[in-house]
Write a structure and sequence with these properties.
This protein has 528 residues and is an alpha/beta fold. Among the domains are: 149 residues, Rossmann fold (3-Layer(aba) Sandwich); 78 residues, no CATH class; 56 residues; 82 residues, Orthogonal Bundle (Arc Repressor Mutant, subunit A), CATH 1.10.10. It has 24 helices and 12 strands. Helix 17 crosses helix 23. The longest helix is centred in the N-terminal third of the chain and has 20 residues. The radius of gyration is 29 Å and the shape is elongated. The termini are far apart. The mean pLDDT is 94.
Length: 528
Amino acid sequence: MNPLDTELALSSRAWPFEEAGRLLKRLNGKTPEKGYVLFETGYGPSGLPHIGTFGEVFRTTLVRRAFQRLCNIPTRLFAFSDDMDGLRKVPDNIPNADMVSAHLGKPLTAIPDPFGTHESFGAHMNHRLQQFLDRFGFEYSFKSATECYKSGLFDTTLLRVLAQYEAIQKIMLPTLGEERRATYSPFMPICPKTGKVLQAPVTTTNAEKGTITYTDEDGESVETPVTGGRCKLQWKPDWGMRWAALNVDYEMHGKDLIPSAQLSAKICRVLGGTPPELFVYELFLDEHGQKISKSKGNGITLDEWLRYATPESLALYMYQSPKKAKRLHFDVIPKHVDEYLSHLQNIDAQEEAKKLANPVWHIHDGSPPAQDIPISFNLLLNLTSACNPEDKSVLWGFITRYAPDATPEKLPELDMLVGYAMAYYEDFIKPTKLYRLPTAAEKDALKALATALEGLEISATAETIQNTIYEIGKSHGFENLRDWFKALYEILLGQEQGPRMGSFIALYGVNETLQLIRRVLRGESLAA
C-alpha cells in the first residue's frame, strides 16, 4: 500500500485495521527481537474442529492481513494444538469408544487412534485440524504441545515456572475451591507407570535440580524433572507459560475466558514475559438466545452452513460485529448470502476509505472478485418455493428468461447459489409451508390484481409490477400495506414472509403468477 493508503487504513473504523493499529502501536512500529510478530490461535483436539475454530482463525487472519498492510514487519501465525492434555471423557462422535475409554487420563498423543489412520488419537485430530485450515487456504504454522514439551522448546520457561512456583500458587489458589486448593499444583506429572497426566499433590520442589516430588496414585513418592515432556502444566499456567515461551504478540479468545486470560497474563508477567495484545470476542447464541454448546448441539456446524451457502457468506458472518453476541441459527444464512453479494456489488463504486471498511475487502484480502449476480439469494429461495423444482434446470429456465445472458457456464457462482437454494428450501422452507385461502376482501383484491397483471406489457419491469401491486392494496382498503403483502405471501407462497413481489413476479413470470392466482380464486389450495 502507498503512504496515503496506510494513512487511510490507520484511520479506518474497520475493526481489523483498528486491531492492527493497536498492535503496531504496542510494538512502537519496530520488529520484535525474534524477528517477526507472532499471532496465535489455540485448539483443543479432543473434538473435531468446529465453526468456532474457523471463526477464531479467520478473524485472527484478518487482523494479521491488516497488520501486513500497515507495515513491513514479518508476521507468523501459530495454530497451537493442546494435544498433550489428558483425555477426560470419550467424545460421543468417534468409533471404538470402548478402546479409547481404556486410555482415559492419558495425553491425546498417547492414546491409540480410534479411526485407525494415525499413530495416535491426537495425531488424527491434528491432521483433521490442518485439513480443516487448509480447506480455507489459511496461512499458518502448526504447533503441537506434545512436540513443544518433548523437544525441550518449553524447558527454559518451565524451569522459570518452577523457580516462581510459590508466586504462581499465590495467583492460582485464591481462584480455587477449598478441596482443589489442597492438592493443586501448576505441574501435572506424566506417570511413568500408567502414562496418565496426574492431578497429583506436589510435596516438594527443587529449582536447582529442576524437579518436583509428588505422590502418585499408589501413594508412592516420586521425583521427576519438569522438563523434557515429563510434566504438563495446568491449562491456565500453560497458557501464560506459552505466551512467555513463544513471545506471542496477539491472540483472541471468547468472552467466557476473560477470567482465565487475566490469570494467564499475571503468570506470563511473573515468568518475565509480556502478555499478548488480546481481543475478546462474544459468544454465539442459538435461536432462543442461549449460549451455543458443542455438547448440546444447539448451533450450526461448519458443514451445515456450507451445505446451504457459500464460504464467503460464513466469512461475512464472522467478520461482522465480533464483539456482539449473535444468533448462529439456520435462518441467518440467507441474509448473509445476500449481504455479501450486496457488499461485493457496491465496492467498485466506493471511494477508497469506504472500500477499506467494506467487509469483502477484508474477506478477499483487498482483491475482491468481479461478480455480477443478477438475482438475490432470497429471490432464488422464493422462486424455488413457488415451483418446487426437482433439478437445477427448472430454476435456470426461469433465470434465463429473466436475465437472457445468464447461463450456468457464464455464471458458475449463480449456479452454486441455485444448488444452495434448493438444499435450503428442501430442509427449512418446504417442511414449514402452510398455504391458506383468501378472505372475501382478499379475494376481491386478488381479482383486481389478476386483471391488472393481464393488462401489463410483456416487458413490464419489476418496479412497474411492484407499483401495480401497491396500488391494488391501497385501493382495496389495506390501511397497512404490509398486511396486503403478507396475505400474498401466505396465499401464493405458503409462508409468512417473502420477497419484494414485483421482483419475484418478474422472475417467476406474470403468466405463471396469474395461474397461481386463478387457482386460488377457484378455491384450490396451492398446497395440493
